[in-house]
Amino acid sequence: MEFARKKLVTIICEAGLEARIGADLERLGAHGYTVSDARGRGARGTREAGWPASGNIRVEVICDEPAARAIAAHLQASYFEHYAMVLYLGEVEVLRDAKF
Questions:
Q1: Extents of the domains making up the chain
Q2: Pair 56, 39: CB distance under 8 Å
Q3: Are strands 40-42 and 45-47 parallel, antiparallel or unpaired?
Q4: CA dist., res. 10 & res. 60, Å (int)
Q5: What does the pLDDT look like over 50-68, one tens digit per residue?
Q6: Would the pLDDT of 94 be above 60?
Q7: Helix (H) and strand (E) counts for the chain?
Q8: pLDDT of amino acid 49
Q9: What DSSP string runs through 16-48?
Q10: Most CB atoms closer than 10 Å: which of 11, 18, 45, 81?
Q11: For 4-52+64-99, CATH number?
């Protein structure tokens, strides 16, 4: 069994940004992404996931390092100043390397 090293980009942001961020991710080299509801508390208070447009989402992307860096740079430049958003990168090992 052969694992490939990839980057996991995790974005937590306002649910209303889902369509825009999805388009950005595809344009920046992501082959796909996963979205799930998120809730919690941070610098901007408590966010609930009960209403589709008002809660937070978690967007996860597995990709190569150049795509991960491009995604992070674009989101920082385009969204961080005006929206509640957290982004972090991690190392993952995946099977089926061609999917990512």
A1: 4-52+64-99
A2: yes
A3: antiparallel
A4: 5
A5: 445 568 999 999 999 999 9
A6: yes
A7: 2, 6
A8: 47
A9: GGHHHHHHHHHHTT-S--EEEEE-EEETTEEE-
A10: 11
A11: 3.30.70.120
